[in-house]
Amino acid sequence: MVQKGTTSWWTMTTGSDQSGKLVYNTALDTGEDFTVTGNIYAEGDFWQGDFVGIFVAPQLPSTLGNNGAPGSGLGIYGYGNLGGIKNATALGWDMNKAGDSYFGDPNGTYPAMVLRQTNASAGVVTLNTNYASAWQPGKGTVTSDATTQGKGTPYTLTYDADAGDSGRGILTLTMAGKSVFVQIDKSTMPYLSVGVNTTGGTGSWTKWEATMDVKGSREPIPVNVTYKDESGADLLAATKVTVGDGQSIGITGLSPAVTGESVTYNAPTIPGYYATKANTVSAKVNDANSYNYTLGVVYAKSYQAATVTKAGLNANNTVKNGTATAATGKTGDAITITDDSLKVAGYTYKVTGPNGKTYDTMQAALVDNGKFDATANGSTTTDSAMQNFKVDYTADKQTATFTYSGGPTDSRNVQQIVGQTDASLTTGTSTPTGGYIYAPMGYRIDTAASQLASGVQLNLSTGNLTASVYGTFDANTSVDQTSQIVFAPITQTAN
Q1: Residue 438 covered by a domain
Q2: Last residue of a domain, one of 168, 187, 217
Q3: Claim to verify: residue 383 and residue 417 sit in the same structural domain
Q4: How far apart are CA 243 and CA 225, in angstroms?
Q5: What is the predicted pLDDT for the residue at 132?
Q6: Ramachandran region of residue 447, left (φ > 0), alpha (ψ -120 to 50) or beta?
Q7: What's the rounded Cα separation, in Å, for the pair 376 and 356?
Q8: Could you give the number of structural domains in the chain?
Q9: Could you give the percent of the chain with pLDDT greater than 90?
Protein backbone atom coordinates (compact mmCIF):
# COMPACT_ATOMS: atom_id res chain seq x y z
CA MET A 1 0.00 0.00 0.00
CA VAL A 2 2.97 2.37 -0.54
CA GLN A 3 1.76 5.48 -2.29
CA LYS A 4 3.40 8.08 -4.47
CA GLY A 5 1.88 11.43 -5.19
CA THR A 6 2.37 13.75 -8.13
CA THR A 7 4.93 16.39 -9.02
CA SER A 8 2.49 18.37 -11.16
CA TRP A 9 2.02 22.05 -10.34
CA TRP A 10 -1.32 23.11 -8.91
CA THR A 11 -2.65 26.64 -8.55
CA MET A 12 -4.02 27.21 -5.04
CA THR A 13 -4.85 30.91 -4.68
CA THR A 14 -5.07 33.72 -7.20
CA GLY A 15 -6.08 36.71 -5.08
CA SER A 16 -6.88 38.20 -1.71
CA ASP A 17 -9.21 36.64 0.83
CA GLN A 18 -8.57 33.18 -0.55
CA SER A 19 -7.61 29.95 1.15
CA GLY A 20 -6.16 27.30 -1.14
CA LYS A 21 -5.37 23.71 -0.37
CA LEU A 22 -3.62 21.02 -2.36
CA VAL A 23 -4.88 17.85 -0.63
CA TYR A 24 -3.53 14.37 -1.22
CA ASN A 25 -6.60 12.27 -2.02
CA THR A 26 -5.68 9.35 0.23
CA ALA A 27 -5.51 9.17 4.02
CA LEU A 28 -2.13 8.08 5.36
CA ASP A 29 -1.62 5.46 8.06
CA THR A 30 -0.09 6.97 11.22
CA GLY A 31 1.15 3.52 12.18
CA GLU A 32 3.72 3.80 9.39
CA ASP A 33 6.32 6.42 8.45
CA PHE A 34 5.58 8.75 5.57
CA THR A 35 7.21 11.65 3.74
CA VAL A 36 5.71 14.52 1.78
CA THR A 37 7.97 16.65 -0.37
CA GLY A 38 7.40 19.34 -2.93
CA ASN A 39 7.92 22.96 -3.90
CA ILE A 40 5.89 26.12 -3.35
CA TYR A 41 5.92 29.06 -5.71
CA ALA A 42 4.75 32.55 -4.84
CA GLU A 43 4.21 35.20 -7.48
CA GLY A 44 6.21 38.31 -6.74
CA ASP A 45 7.06 37.92 -3.04
CA PHE A 46 7.09 34.67 -1.02
CA TRP A 47 6.38 36.58 2.23
CA GLN A 48 3.03 38.02 1.13
CA GLY A 49 -0.35 36.67 2.10
CA ASP A 50 -1.19 35.26 5.53
CA PHE A 51 0.02 31.67 5.74
CA VAL A 52 1.92 29.08 3.75
CA GLY A 53 2.75 25.60 4.97
CA ILE A 54 1.32 22.17 5.55
CA PHE A 55 -1.80 21.06 7.39
CA VAL A 56 -2.98 17.64 8.53
CA ALA A 57 -6.23 16.37 10.02
CA PRO A 58 -7.80 12.97 10.81
CA GLN A 59 -10.64 13.56 8.35
CA LEU A 60 -11.69 12.52 4.89
CA PRO A 61 -9.45 14.01 2.22
CA SER A 62 -12.51 14.97 0.19
CA THR A 63 -13.87 17.22 2.96
CA LEU A 64 -10.74 19.15 3.89
CA GLY A 65 -10.90 21.71 1.14
CA ASN A 66 -14.41 22.84 2.04
CA ASN A 67 -13.58 24.52 5.34
CA GLY A 68 -10.93 26.74 6.91
CA ALA A 69 -10.99 30.50 6.50
CA PRO A 70 -8.35 32.66 4.81
CA GLY A 71 -6.58 35.51 6.49
CA SER A 72 -6.16 34.99 10.23
CA GLY A 73 -8.00 31.67 9.86
CA LEU A 74 -4.74 30.22 8.49
CA GLY A 75 -6.83 27.84 6.39
CA ILE A 76 -7.86 25.73 9.41
CA TYR A 77 -9.87 28.00 11.72
CA GLY A 78 -13.51 28.87 11.23
CA TYR A 79 -14.14 32.52 10.52
CA GLY A 80 -17.03 34.41 9.04
CA ASN A 81 -19.21 32.10 6.98
CA LEU A 82 -16.62 29.31 6.84
CA GLY A 83 -16.36 26.53 9.38
CA GLY A 84 -13.07 25.30 10.76
CA ILE A 85 -11.41 21.90 10.31
CA LYS A 86 -11.68 19.64 13.36
CA ASN A 87 -8.50 18.44 15.06
CA ALA A 88 -6.37 20.10 12.41
CA THR A 89 -2.70 21.02 12.72
CA ALA A 90 -1.07 23.71 10.60
CA LEU A 91 2.72 23.84 10.40
CA GLY A 92 4.35 26.65 8.48
CA TRP A 93 4.77 30.37 8.09
CA ASP A 94 2.30 32.78 9.66
CA MET A 95 2.91 36.06 7.84
CA ASN A 96 0.95 38.44 10.11
CA LYS A 97 -0.23 38.69 13.69
CA ALA A 98 -4.01 38.42 13.89
CA GLY A 99 -5.66 41.61 15.02
CA ASP A 100 -8.48 39.64 16.70
CA SER A 101 -7.53 38.11 20.05
CA TYR A 102 -9.73 35.13 19.15
CA PHE A 103 -6.82 33.57 17.26
CA GLY A 104 -4.35 33.97 20.11
CA ASP A 105 -1.40 35.03 17.96
CA PRO A 106 1.53 35.95 20.20
CA ASN A 107 3.29 39.29 20.00
CA GLY A 108 6.56 39.26 18.14
CA THR A 109 8.23 39.55 14.80
CA TYR A 110 6.33 38.23 11.76
CA PRO A 111 6.63 36.22 9.53
CA ALA A 112 7.07 33.44 12.12
CA MET A 113 7.33 29.68 11.88
CA VAL A 114 4.40 28.35 13.94
CA LEU A 115 2.44 25.33 15.00
CA ARG A 116 -1.29 26.08 15.23
CA GLN A 117 -4.12 23.63 15.99
CA THR A 118 -7.89 23.27 16.28
CA ASN A 119 -9.82 21.16 18.75
CA ALA A 120 -12.55 18.54 18.22
CA SER A 121 -15.06 21.34 17.71
CA ALA A 122 -12.82 23.08 15.17
CA GLY A 123 -12.15 25.82 17.73
CA VAL A 124 -8.85 27.64 18.13
CA VAL A 125 -6.27 25.98 20.35
CA THR A 126 -3.95 28.44 22.05
CA LEU A 127 -0.44 28.31 20.65
CA ASN A 128 1.10 25.12 22.04
CA THR A 129 4.09 26.18 24.14
CA ASN A 130 4.84 22.53 24.93
CA TYR A 131 6.87 22.48 21.75
CA ALA A 132 10.03 24.59 21.70
CA SER A 133 9.65 25.02 17.95
CA ALA A 134 6.01 26.09 18.02
CA TRP A 135 6.86 29.82 17.86
CA GLN A 136 9.92 30.90 15.90
CA PRO A 137 9.63 34.63 15.09
CA GLY A 138 11.47 36.12 12.18
CA LYS A 139 11.56 35.57 8.46
CA GLY A 140 13.19 32.42 7.18
CA THR A 141 15.34 31.83 4.12
CA VAL A 142 13.86 30.74 0.82
CA THR A 143 15.69 29.73 -2.32
CA SER A 144 16.20 32.14 -5.16
CA ASP A 145 13.66 30.11 -7.15
CA ALA A 146 10.84 30.77 -4.66
CA THR A 147 9.29 33.29 -7.06
CA THR A 148 10.22 31.44 -10.25
CA GLN A 149 7.17 29.72 -11.69
CA GLY A 150 7.75 26.01 -12.22
CA LYS A 151 10.53 25.86 -9.60
CA GLY A 152 9.62 27.38 -6.21
CA THR A 153 11.22 26.76 -2.81
CA PRO A 154 11.25 23.24 -1.38
CA TYR A 155 9.53 21.84 1.69
CA THR A 156 9.76 18.47 3.43
CA LEU A 157 7.21 16.95 5.81
CA THR A 158 8.39 13.81 7.57
CA TYR A 159 6.51 11.54 9.92
CA ASP A 160 8.27 9.07 12.21
CA ALA A 161 5.66 6.70 13.63
CA ASP A 162 7.76 5.70 16.65
CA ALA A 163 9.77 8.82 17.54
CA GLY A 164 7.37 10.49 19.99
CA ASP A 165 6.57 10.04 23.66
CA SER A 166 4.43 7.12 24.88
CA GLY A 167 4.12 5.55 21.46
CA ARG A 168 3.26 8.77 19.65
CA GLY A 169 4.60 9.70 16.24
CA ILE A 170 6.38 12.94 15.38
CA LEU A 171 5.44 15.07 12.37
CA THR A 172 8.12 17.59 11.29
CA LEU A 173 7.96 20.31 8.63
CA THR A 174 11.17 21.82 7.27
CA MET A 175 10.62 24.85 5.08
CA ALA A 176 12.41 28.12 4.29
CA GLY A 177 15.26 27.36 6.63
CA LYS A 178 13.30 26.44 9.76
CA SER A 179 11.59 23.36 11.19
CA VAL A 180 8.55 22.82 13.38
CA PHE A 181 7.20 19.55 14.78
CA VAL A 182 4.18 18.12 16.55
CA GLN A 183 3.51 14.79 18.28
CA ILE A 184 0.69 12.66 16.88
CA ASP A 185 -1.46 10.50 19.16
CA LYS A 186 -2.06 7.45 16.98
CA SER A 187 -4.93 6.21 19.17
CA THR A 188 -7.02 9.29 18.37
CA MET A 189 -5.51 9.89 14.95
CA PRO A 190 -5.15 6.48 13.27
CA TYR A 191 -4.87 8.23 9.93
CA LEU A 192 -4.13 11.71 8.64
CA SER A 193 -5.07 13.55 5.51
CA VAL A 194 -2.37 15.96 4.42
CA GLY A 195 -2.24 19.01 2.21
CA VAL A 196 -0.33 22.16 1.28
CA ASN A 197 -2.10 25.19 2.77
CA THR A 198 -1.88 28.79 1.54
CA THR A 199 -4.06 31.79 2.45
CA GLY A 200 -4.33 35.43 1.58
CA GLY A 201 -5.92 38.09 3.71
CA THR A 202 -7.75 41.32 2.92
CA GLY A 203 -5.60 43.50 0.77
CA SER A 204 -2.88 40.89 0.36
CA TRP A 205 -2.63 39.30 -3.06
CA THR A 206 -0.45 36.30 -3.71
CA LYS A 207 -0.69 33.66 -6.36
CA TRP A 208 0.42 30.40 -4.81
CA GLU A 209 1.28 27.23 -6.68
CA ALA A 210 2.61 23.97 -5.26
CA THR A 211 3.64 20.41 -5.96
CA MET A 212 3.23 17.42 -3.68
CA ASP A 213 4.97 14.05 -3.77
CA VAL A 214 3.85 11.53 -1.12
CA LYS A 215 5.60 8.37 -0.05
CA GLY A 216 3.84 6.43 2.67
CA SER A 217 1.20 3.88 3.47
CA ARG A 218 -2.48 4.32 2.96
CA GLU A 219 -4.70 4.16 6.02
CA PRO A 220 -5.57 0.44 6.27
CA ILE A 221 -9.26 -0.37 6.07
CA PRO A 222 -10.56 -3.81 7.06
CA VAL A 223 -12.78 -5.68 4.62
CA ASN A 224 -14.76 -8.76 5.62
CA VAL A 225 -14.67 -11.55 3.07
CA THR A 226 -17.51 -14.08 3.07
CA TYR A 227 -17.67 -17.40 1.24
CA LYS A 228 -21.21 -18.59 0.60
CA ASP A 229 -23.01 -21.00 -1.69
CA GLU A 230 -25.78 -19.90 -4.02
CA SER A 231 -28.39 -20.38 -1.29
CA GLY A 232 -26.52 -18.02 1.03
CA ALA A 233 -25.15 -20.69 3.37
CA ASP A 234 -21.61 -20.21 4.66
CA LEU A 235 -19.04 -22.56 3.17
CA LEU A 236 -16.09 -21.14 5.10
CA ALA A 237 -15.77 -18.86 8.08
CA ALA A 238 -15.47 -15.22 7.06
CA THR A 239 -11.98 -13.75 6.95
CA LYS A 240 -10.59 -10.24 6.88
CA VAL A 241 -8.28 -8.55 4.42
CA THR A 242 -6.88 -5.04 4.57
CA VAL A 243 -6.86 -2.49 1.78
CA GLY A 244 -5.73 1.09 1.72
CA ASP A 245 -7.90 4.18 1.69
CA GLY A 246 -9.12 4.81 -1.84
CA GLN A 247 -8.37 1.33 -3.07
CA SER A 248 -10.82 -1.18 -4.46
CA ILE A 249 -10.72 -4.93 -3.96
CA GLY A 250 -12.38 -7.69 -5.92
CA ILE A 251 -11.91 -11.14 -7.40
CA THR A 252 -10.16 -11.23 -10.76
CA GLY A 253 -12.53 -12.34 -13.49
CA LEU A 254 -15.58 -12.18 -11.22
CA SER A 255 -15.91 -8.73 -9.68
CA PRO A 256 -17.13 -5.76 -11.75
CA ALA A 257 -14.29 -3.72 -13.14
CA VAL A 258 -13.32 -0.57 -11.24
CA THR A 259 -11.44 2.58 -12.14
CA GLY A 260 -8.45 3.68 -10.14
CA GLU A 261 -6.11 1.55 -8.08
CA SER A 262 -7.37 -1.90 -7.19
CA VAL A 263 -6.21 -4.85 -5.14
CA THR A 264 -6.85 -8.38 -6.38
CA TYR A 265 -7.72 -11.15 -3.99
CA ASN A 266 -7.50 -14.82 -4.82
CA ALA A 267 -10.58 -16.60 -3.56
CA PRO A 268 -9.69 -19.81 -1.71
CA THR A 269 -10.41 -23.12 -3.37
CA ILE A 270 -13.28 -24.97 -1.73
CA PRO A 271 -13.38 -28.66 -2.69
CA GLY A 272 -16.44 -29.42 -4.75
CA TYR A 273 -17.20 -25.75 -5.46
CA TYR A 274 -16.02 -22.99 -7.74
CA ALA A 275 -16.26 -19.23 -7.33
CA THR A 276 -18.90 -17.89 -9.67
CA LYS A 277 -19.41 -14.24 -8.74
CA ALA A 278 -18.22 -11.52 -6.37
CA ASN A 279 -18.82 -7.84 -5.73
CA THR A 280 -16.27 -5.05 -5.69
CA VAL A 281 -15.48 -3.03 -2.56
CA SER A 282 -14.22 0.54 -2.87
CA ALA A 283 -12.86 1.45 0.56
CA LYS A 284 -12.72 4.99 1.93
CA VAL A 285 -11.87 6.29 5.38
CA ASN A 286 -14.60 7.86 7.45
CA ASP A 287 -14.59 10.24 10.37
CA ALA A 288 -15.77 7.55 12.79
CA ASN A 289 -12.98 5.19 11.72
CA SER A 290 -15.61 2.44 11.74
CA TYR A 291 -16.07 0.15 8.74
CA ASN A 292 -18.46 -2.51 7.56
CA TYR A 293 -17.16 -3.37 4.10
CA THR A 294 -17.86 -6.88 2.84
CA LEU A 295 -16.46 -8.65 -0.19
CA GLY A 296 -18.89 -11.48 -0.86
CA VAL A 297 -17.69 -14.45 -2.90
CA VAL A 298 -20.42 -16.79 -4.13
CA TYR A 299 -19.59 -20.39 -4.97
CA ALA A 300 -21.51 -22.84 -7.14
CA LYS A 301 -21.45 -26.60 -6.73
CA SER A 302 -19.20 -28.50 -9.11
CA TYR A 303 -20.33 -31.25 -11.47
CA GLN A 304 -19.93 -34.75 -10.04
CA ALA A 305 -20.51 -38.24 -11.41
CA ALA A 306 -20.81 -41.83 -10.20
CA THR A 307 -20.01 -44.93 -12.23
CA VAL A 308 -21.02 -48.58 -12.03
CA THR A 309 -18.54 -51.30 -12.94
CA LYS A 310 -20.22 -54.60 -13.80
CA ALA A 311 -18.22 -57.81 -13.51
CA GLY A 312 -18.99 -61.53 -13.53
CA LEU A 313 -21.50 -61.59 -16.38
CA ASN A 314 -21.05 -64.29 -19.00
CA ALA A 315 -19.97 -62.98 -22.35
CA ASN A 316 -23.07 -64.61 -23.88
CA ASN A 317 -25.36 -62.23 -21.98
CA THR A 318 -26.73 -59.15 -23.68
CA VAL A 319 -25.72 -57.12 -20.63
CA LYS A 320 -21.98 -56.60 -20.78
CA ASN A 321 -19.27 -56.22 -18.19
CA GLY A 322 -17.58 -52.85 -17.97
CA THR A 323 -17.78 -49.36 -16.49
CA ALA A 324 -20.37 -46.74 -17.37
CA THR A 325 -21.59 -43.48 -15.87
CA ALA A 326 -24.70 -44.25 -13.86
CA ALA A 327 -25.54 -40.95 -12.18
CA THR A 328 -24.58 -37.28 -12.46
CA GLY A 329 -25.26 -34.34 -10.22
CA LYS A 330 -23.50 -31.73 -8.13
CA THR A 331 -21.48 -31.71 -4.96
CA GLY A 332 -23.50 -32.99 -2.03
CA ASP A 333 -26.53 -34.00 -4.11
CA ALA A 334 -28.12 -37.41 -3.69
CA ILE A 335 -26.84 -40.21 -5.93
CA THR A 336 -29.71 -42.05 -7.61
CA ILE A 337 -28.97 -45.56 -8.88
CA THR A 338 -31.76 -48.14 -8.58
CA ASP A 339 -31.46 -51.86 -8.00
CA ASP A 340 -33.88 -52.40 -10.89
CA SER A 341 -31.26 -50.92 -13.20
CA LEU A 342 -28.78 -53.56 -12.07
CA LYS A 343 -30.90 -56.69 -12.19
CA VAL A 344 -29.89 -59.28 -14.79
CA ALA A 345 -32.04 -62.42 -15.16
CA GLY A 346 -30.27 -65.53 -13.97
CA TYR A 347 -27.78 -63.67 -11.76
CA THR A 348 -27.48 -62.38 -8.25
CA TYR A 349 -25.10 -59.59 -7.28
CA LYS A 350 -23.23 -57.79 -4.53
CA VAL A 351 -22.35 -54.09 -4.55
CA THR A 352 -19.05 -52.69 -3.34
CA GLY A 353 -19.37 -48.99 -2.56
CA PRO A 354 -16.77 -46.21 -2.94
CA ASN A 355 -16.01 -46.73 0.74
CA GLY A 356 -14.78 -50.28 0.02
CA LYS A 357 -17.59 -52.03 1.88
CA THR A 358 -19.77 -54.69 0.25
CA TYR A 359 -23.57 -54.63 0.33
CA ASP A 360 -26.37 -56.95 -0.78
CA THR A 361 -28.15 -54.22 -2.72
CA MET A 362 -27.48 -50.83 -4.23
CA GLN A 363 -30.10 -49.39 -1.92
CA ALA A 364 -28.06 -50.54 1.05
CA ALA A 365 -24.84 -49.23 -0.49
CA LEU A 366 -26.39 -45.77 -0.95
CA VAL A 367 -27.20 -45.51 2.73
CA ASP A 368 -23.47 -45.08 3.34
CA ASN A 369 -22.45 -43.70 -0.05
CA GLY A 370 -25.52 -41.74 -1.11
CA LYS A 371 -24.06 -38.28 -1.69
CA PHE A 372 -21.85 -36.98 -4.45
CA ASP A 373 -18.38 -36.17 -3.18
CA ALA A 374 -16.51 -32.88 -3.38
CA THR A 375 -13.97 -33.43 -6.14
CA ALA A 376 -12.54 -30.07 -7.21
CA ASN A 377 -13.83 -30.09 -10.78
CA GLY A 378 -14.24 -26.34 -11.07
CA SER A 379 -16.83 -25.22 -13.58
CA THR A 380 -16.24 -28.12 -15.98
CA THR A 381 -18.71 -30.90 -16.72
CA THR A 382 -16.05 -33.55 -16.25
CA ASP A 383 -15.43 -35.35 -12.99
CA SER A 384 -11.75 -36.03 -12.49
CA ALA A 385 -12.40 -38.60 -9.73
CA MET A 386 -15.76 -40.27 -10.15
CA GLN A 387 -17.25 -42.32 -7.35
CA ASN A 388 -17.36 -45.95 -8.40
CA PHE A 389 -19.76 -48.69 -7.37
CA LYS A 390 -18.59 -52.18 -8.32
CA VAL A 391 -21.33 -54.73 -9.02
CA ASP A 392 -20.12 -58.33 -8.93
CA TYR A 393 -22.56 -60.77 -10.53
CA THR A 394 -22.84 -64.49 -9.74
CA ALA A 395 -24.57 -66.72 -12.26
CA ASP A 396 -27.47 -68.84 -10.97
CA LYS A 397 -27.51 -72.67 -11.13
CA GLN A 398 -29.28 -73.97 -14.22
CA THR A 399 -30.40 -77.51 -15.19
CA ALA A 400 -31.12 -79.01 -18.57
CA THR A 401 -33.07 -82.31 -18.46
CA PHE A 402 -33.82 -84.94 -21.10
CA THR A 403 -36.70 -87.41 -21.44
CA TYR A 404 -36.94 -90.27 -23.94
CA SER A 405 -39.79 -92.05 -25.72
CA GLY A 406 -40.45 -94.21 -28.72
CA GLY A 407 -37.99 -96.97 -27.95
CA PRO A 408 -36.07 -98.88 -25.29
CA THR A 409 -34.03 -96.87 -22.78
CA ASP A 410 -30.25 -96.80 -23.00
CA SER A 411 -28.53 -96.19 -19.68
CA ARG A 412 -25.79 -94.27 -21.41
CA ASN A 413 -28.17 -91.50 -22.51
CA VAL A 414 -27.77 -88.10 -20.80
CA GLN A 415 -30.44 -87.42 -18.21
CA GLN A 416 -29.44 -83.94 -17.07
CA ILE A 417 -26.71 -81.34 -17.34
CA VAL A 418 -26.14 -78.91 -14.47
CA GLY A 419 -24.38 -75.58 -15.04
CA GLN A 420 -24.80 -71.79 -14.77
CA THR A 421 -26.76 -69.08 -16.53
CA ASP A 422 -25.44 -68.29 -20.01
CA ALA A 423 -22.72 -70.95 -19.77
CA SER A 424 -22.16 -73.54 -22.45
CA LEU A 425 -23.91 -76.87 -21.89
CA THR A 426 -20.64 -78.59 -22.62
CA THR A 427 -19.09 -76.98 -19.55
CA GLY A 428 -21.79 -78.32 -17.26
CA THR A 429 -21.84 -81.52 -15.25
CA SER A 430 -23.60 -84.28 -17.21
CA THR A 431 -25.38 -87.29 -15.73
CA PRO A 432 -24.30 -89.79 -16.86
CA THR A 433 -21.05 -88.27 -17.95
CA GLY A 434 -20.45 -87.51 -21.56
CA GLY A 435 -23.59 -85.68 -22.60
CA TYR A 436 -24.47 -88.12 -25.38
CA ILE A 437 -27.67 -89.65 -26.72
CA TYR A 438 -27.68 -93.18 -28.17
CA ALA A 439 -30.60 -94.50 -30.21
CA PRO A 440 -31.51 -98.15 -29.34
CA MET A 441 -30.50 -100.83 -31.77
CA GLY A 442 -32.73 -100.56 -34.84
CA TYR A 443 -33.85 -97.00 -33.95
CA ARG A 444 -32.86 -93.49 -34.89
CA ILE A 445 -33.34 -90.11 -33.24
CA ASP A 446 -36.48 -88.65 -34.73
CA THR A 447 -35.61 -84.95 -35.05
CA ALA A 448 -39.01 -84.09 -36.36
CA ALA A 449 -40.82 -85.52 -33.36
CA SER A 450 -38.26 -84.49 -30.74
CA GLN A 451 -38.75 -81.20 -28.92
CA LEU A 452 -35.58 -79.43 -27.82
CA ALA A 453 -35.64 -76.80 -25.07
CA SER A 454 -34.59 -73.29 -25.94
CA GLY A 455 -30.81 -73.10 -26.15
CA VAL A 456 -30.35 -76.87 -26.54
CA GLN A 457 -28.99 -78.30 -29.79
CA LEU A 458 -27.90 -81.75 -31.03
CA ASN A 459 -24.88 -82.63 -33.06
CA LEU A 460 -26.19 -85.71 -34.91
CA SER A 461 -24.16 -88.53 -36.36
CA THR A 462 -24.85 -90.08 -39.77
CA GLY A 463 -28.27 -91.65 -39.79
CA ASN A 464 -29.17 -89.93 -36.50
CA LEU A 465 -27.98 -92.94 -34.55
CA THR A 466 -26.15 -90.85 -31.91
CA ALA A 467 -25.93 -87.21 -30.90
CA SER A 468 -23.83 -85.00 -28.65
CA VAL A 469 -25.62 -82.24 -26.76
CA TYR A 470 -24.44 -78.63 -26.97
CA GLY A 471 -25.90 -75.16 -26.55
CA THR A 472 -26.32 -72.60 -23.77
CA PHE A 473 -27.99 -72.58 -20.40
CA ASP A 474 -30.87 -70.10 -20.18
CA ALA A 475 -31.57 -67.60 -17.39
CA ASN A 476 -34.73 -69.18 -15.99
CA THR A 477 -34.04 -70.70 -12.59
CA SER A 478 -37.64 -71.68 -11.89
CA VAL A 479 -38.03 -74.13 -14.78
CA ASP A 480 -35.48 -76.59 -16.14
CA GLN A 481 -34.60 -76.60 -19.81
CA THR A 482 -36.41 -79.89 -20.65
CA SER A 483 -35.92 -81.56 -24.00
CA GLN A 484 -38.04 -84.50 -25.19
CA ILE A 485 -36.12 -86.96 -27.36
CA VAL A 486 -38.19 -89.29 -29.53
CA PHE A 487 -36.81 -92.48 -31.12
CA ALA A 488 -38.26 -93.94 -34.27
CA PRO A 489 -37.67 -97.41 -35.75
CA ILE A 490 -35.35 -97.60 -38.69
CA THR A 491 -37.15 -98.80 -41.79
CA GLN A 492 -35.91 -102.33 -42.67
CA THR A 493 -35.91 -103.93 -46.14
CA ALA A 494 -36.13 -107.74 -46.56
CA ASN A 495 -34.77 -109.47 -49.68
Answers
A1: yes
A2: 217
A3: no
A4: 12
A5: 65
A6: alpha
A7: 22
A8: 4
A9: 54
